[in-house]
Amino acid sequence: MADDPLVIFTPSGKRGRVPAGTPVLEAARKLGVDLDSVCGGRGICSKCQVAPGKGAFPKHGVTVAEDALTGINAVEERYDRIRGLKPGRRLGCQARIQSDVVIDVPPESQLHRQVIRKSASERVMVMDPAVRPFYVEVVEPDLDDPTGDFQRLSMALEEQWQIKGLRADLEVLARIQKVLRKGEWKVTAVVWDDGRQPPQLIDLIPGLLDGPLYGLAIDLGSTTIAGHLVALDDGRVLASSGLMNPQIRFGEDLMSRVSYAMMNPGGAEEMTAAVRDGLGHLATALAEEAGVEPARITEAVVVCNPVMHHLMLGIDPVELGQAPFAPATSDALVLKARELGLKIAPPARAYVLPIIAGHVGADAAAVVLSEQPQKSETPVLIVDVGTNAEIVLGDRTRVLACSSPTGPAFEGAQISSGQRAAPGAIERVRIDPLTKEPRFRIIGVEAWSDEPGFNEAAKATGITGICGSGIIEAVAEMRMAGLVDPSGLIGSAEQVGTARSVPQGRTHSYVLHDGTAEGGPLITVTQGDIRAIQLAKSALYAGARLLMDEFGIETLDRVVLAGAFGAHISPLHALVLGMIPDCAPERVTSAGNAAGTGARIALCSRAARVEIEDEVRRVTRIETAIAPRFQEHFVAANAIPHATDAYPGLVGQVSLPEVSYNTAGDDRPRRRRR
């Protein structure tokens, strides 16, 4: 009615008239305002705190009287006395509207809170998780109404929270009666509801839940498994950890694992058991690191490539190893987390993102969700660097995707002194082009090896090996210093002018660090290491060029490097190496672990799940295994940086020596003319 009070909510700007005496929380729900509440308006949880305005608001054409809301009542006084209310704040469930009013909903009271978080760049994360707690008061049974306790709980949730069709696993049903009586029929129901399937009772807690629920975002890679423990009230990451994929012992790359499954009866089952065991250990480690009870971890989101997807699910991956590379299923899946080996709340669910094609997986879908190439005005190339590189090229008109079998060299495997990224691993390398002397940084120490304080700081970890970003920079620096020729051959000590080039059989190695005098390792870059990097980077480049061919472009305006160590790869060194097609170095940026970020987005937002499931259907898949030009691009990319592409983006950035160490002629280093 026109005489009813006008209520205006900020920052949403939503407004409407409600009858005098309407609680603020009820008005917010009626107008679709984002105001949180867990206790259902009983003044217990304080999630619905609001800040009413006073005085004139010309923008809204409203003047708010001192008594626009009812006075502070006994419930608010008790809460303020025990826990404290900020000055000017009211509980939305207790304050009632009496006349025109402007009410601000602070960020901490917004149900779908937006959190600005930084990985490689700022992003807005919208909180709309599938798992939420709901405080309810359940009617006790009596002889006249012996309805089951689960039915009573379901009716309470429907009446108080409009949650209909609740279901529960047997393990939860077995606990309901004890919990209801312990809580004196006042309990918090933890409900999983993705908006598309019947809501599921995950847990039941006596009284009001104190503290948030948690979820896991997991990027299951061929070589490493990375995970994040996320608070489901505001999206903050409480713990991050990773471990080597236990399947490594069955083969370092995907096709070797498919072969293992084909050649060994029960091989697929072995690998399934191994990866589930790894997932279980990761979940336990994350819970311990954050000091969180595993029972409070109520959902997981998993992204992975198709072979990992099938082996995790217990599906034989043999069909993925032969044309037409058909997956058993490509849709998104909802499973019980315990079925995947995750040691979290027993009834917790796991959401697995959809896979794009037989060789383009849910990890690529997560990258698309994170980086949003379909919204770019110009074509952007996104490269998720890993054992099985996922490559995406797209703009507003279309999105293409493929995978390329780079192998594990970029992650430190198949490298003579290689190791995973851990304290003590060399992660940065610089080589003086005149003296050929190296300097480096190790993970865990800020100083470079030639700076004061390095030796003392390095004692804590030692100098243990070289990780993925370190080997990339080492090979690129060797090329820039004239230690390696365009074909990838390491010159002898006489040819390159340094005793750090030492014979190794019929080839040579470059000594990066000699710690043998102190009982440490001899860390070298061998000819075999160079070849492994060449094969990996050629596969990566060839995949990217195939997408560019299909897209009809010859140059790139922007490149995004993603992957577990994408944030640590130097754009300049990636270009010198020829990992990616030519692009201005300043236009090559990092997104860090974009697949892991995509998993976190899906964990925090039900709408994001719908979005990526729809987007995946529109992605065009390019199959590198049968593409006619893949081998052509691969062979040309073996050179460093490339046999035929001129790389004009590097001009003015670096000078690459024109050297050759596989001829009998004059092999003295010469600088390439600009």
Total strand count, please? 33
Strand neighbour order, sheet with most strands: 18-17-16-19-21-20
Give the end-to-end Cα distance, rounded to a whole number of Å. Answer: 78 Å
CATH architecture tag of the largest domain: 2-Layer Sandwich
* CATH class call of the largest domain: Alpha Beta
Shape: elongated
In helices, the fraction of residues equals: 25-40%
What ranges have pLDDT less than 50 throughout 5 or more consecutive residues?
A: 113-122, 664-674
**CATH fold field value of the largest domain:** Nucleotidyltransferase, domain 5
Global mean pLDDT: 88
Main sheet attributes: strand count, strand direction, barrel closure: 6 strands, mixed
Provide an overview of this structure.
By secondary structure, the protein is an alpha/beta fold. Helix content is 26%, strand content 24%. It is built from 16 helices and 33 strands. The strands form nine sheets. The chain has a six-stranded mixed beta sheet, sandwiched between helices. It has a six-stranded mixed beta sheet with strand order 32-31-22-23-24-33, with helices on both faces. The radius of gyration is 30 Å and the shape is elongated. 49% of the residues are buried. Residues 113-122 and 664-674 have low confidence and may be disordered. GO terms for molecular function: iron-sulfur cluster binding. InterPro entries: 2Fe-2S_ferredoxin-like_sf, 2Fe-2S_ferredoxin-type, Beta-grasp_dom_sf, Corrinoid_activation_enz, Raco-like_middle, Raco-like_middle_sf, RACo_C, RACo_linker. This is Drug:proton antiporter. Residues 5-109 form the 2Fe-2S ferredoxin-type domain.
